[in-house]
Amino acid sequence: MIGKAFAVGVLVLTTAVAAPAVEIGGVTLPDTLVVGRDQLVLNGAGLRKKFFIKVYAAGLYLRARTDDARAIIDADAPMAVRMEFLYDGVSPEKLIAAWDEGFANATGGDLTPIQTEVQRFDALFTEAARKGDVYQLLYTPAEGVWVEMNGHTVATLPGLAFKRALFAIWLGDTPADRSLKQGMLGE
Fold it and tell me: Looking at beta carbons, which pairs linking 155-161 to residues 24 or more positions away fall under 8 Å?
């Protein structure tokens, strides 16, 4: 019961705060997000493209802006990635394949320490992502990564190691999309 009440409380607190927004790819990203008790600022934003297709717009939210990707990945501090899908109908299989490729790149192919969390994460993607869907990955040190889909918390995955691998998908040495990495770092 306490866990359920806490999840509802986090859900309420992770909604976007009314603020001037950033427009990218026809999507409006808020300048701030509240995660737990922390107000995070938009560090940067960009588009995830696959070939010539715009898949989603994404924003990286931190306590304070920085362009140090390694510091962001390693930080045990509240942060979030917000993705709004531009492409209609990214299948669950394609989502999972992209996540798994990103996790493999982020860990140098050794997923052993986070295998359970990666499997739980992959299992969340059972439906196609549609245009307008909003996914948020919200990290708080005490709880782990809260996964939200269209405003609903669907899972919490514990552990700093998982958070590091997840954020390295966008910010690591082999990011999913180099121009998106640059945008998220505000470059």
Answer: 155/120, 155/121, 155/124, 156/7, 157/117, 157/120, 157/121, 158/117, 159/114, 159/117, 160/76, 161/113, 161/114
